[in-house]
Write a structure and sequence with these properties.
Blueprint (H helix, E strand, L loop, with lengths): L8 H13 L17 E8 L5 H8 L12 E9 L6 E9 L21 E8 L3 H23 L5 E3 L5 E3 L25 E6 L11 H17 L24 H4 L17 H12 L6 H6 L12 H31 L1
Parallel strand pairs: 1-3, 1-4, 4-7
Antiparallel strand pairs: 2-3, 5-6
């Protein structure tokens, strides 16, 4: 007969969370040995309405219409390694709002998962004026949080055999000592996949869209489930680029192709800075500072509009302003009488 506990559901849930954080799973109750699980985290970031949700749903083979991401959303995917074996788990986070809610990166990136973390940056090719700024801000915010998480001590897991192991102890990204650009670039500390979305806008036909999606899903399974890396590569500028990490160099990329700008007058610090300056001459960056301040409150974002609720809120805001003005007048009148 099972033991009857007088603990409330909340107390039981709290105890379960604490046991997971301590790495002491409840194996006596049929739990799974933590050492046998393979869990990874994939964090999707990028332009607002840039196609992150669509890509994520396609990678998970979910046939459902994409909805606007509200702030930060979580889902997961599972994949079987073989018969009667635990399924690998991919924890999938998606940041909405472009760069306006970038402070939320601290939620999906923690000391517990940072060494099993991968980042997918989705950039909207149809909005080149916002592309570089979005990329720069999101990558810098994410890098800062990754470095912060790495500086914290990681928990250890204890298996049934009693041996302790570091949780998901994959090393952070470093360049080989013989890499030609080692002194010029600072690699992103965790695996990073950059996807240029809405490429089909620049094509006269979408016949290759399924082929591109298949390659995207292959890259996703590498990050989310640790499958073998593919060998696809394409450096033909007339076709979608597919460049695996470490398969190019600054010398192969070359200088920015431009005839309207004298490169010698740009005073770039390094090759990446040169590309940025030329890119911003061709595609002047948007002034997004005011837009970010306005959208810091998601309730003001038209993406999440609800006509009836918004109308009622506007009415209540008007009533509140009127109340404040009347209260201010009454207070001033009281001061004059005294």
């Amino acid at each position: 007969m099972p033991k009857i506990s007088s603990d409330t559901l909340w107390e039981l849930a709290s105890a379960e969370v604490q046991s997971r954080e301590d790495g002491t799973g409840r194996e006596e109750d049929g739990g799974v040995d933590p050492g046998s699980l393979n869990e990874r985290t994939v964090f999707f970031i990028g332009n607002k309405a840039g196609g992150k949700t669509t890509i994520l749903l396609r990678c998970l083979d979910r046939d459902e219409p994409p909805k606007p991401t509200l702030a930060l959303e979580y889902t997961f995917g599972r994949r079987a390694r073989g018969h009667n074996t635990p399924k690998d788990i991919a924890h999938l986070w998606e940041l909405g709002g472009g760069t306006s809610l970038s402070d939320l990166v601290q939620i999906p990136i923690t000391a517990q998962n940072v060494r099993s973390l991968s980042v997918v940056l989705v950039l909207d090719l149809s909005k080149p004026n916002a592309l570089w700024g979005t990329m720069e801000r999101l990558l810098q915010t994410t890098r800062t949080q990754v470095e912060k998480a790495c500086s914290k001590p990681q928990r250890t897991l204890e298996s049934k055999a009693g041996s302790k192991q570091q949780a998901q102890n994959r090393p952070l990204m470093v360049l080989p000592k013989d890499h030609p650009d080692r002194e010029l670039i600072n690699p992103f500390p965790v695996p990073l996949l950059i996807i240029g979305s809405k490429f089909d806008i620049f094509q006269f036909t979408s016949s290759k869209s399924e082929s591109l999606m298949s390659k995207t899903k292959s890259l996703f399974t590498q990050l989310g489930f640790g499958t073998e890396k593919g060998k696809s590569m394409s450096s033909d500028l007339s076709k979608p680029l597919i460049i695996p990490a470490g398969m190019d160099s600054l010398s192969q990329i070359g200088s920015p192709p431009t005839t309207d700008v004298d490169i010698g007058t740009l005073h770039a610090k390094n090759p990446l800075d040169l590309w940025k300056k030329v890119f911003e001459v061709v595609f002047p960056p948007e002034n997004t500072s005011d837009h970010h301040r306005e959208l810091k409150d998601p309730a003001k974002d038209p993406q999440y509009s609800e006509p009836q609720i918004d109308s009622m809120r506007a009415q209540k805001d008007t009533e509140l302003d009127q109340y404040r003005r009347n209260a201010s007048k009454s207070w001033k009148g009281l001061e004059l009488e005294t």
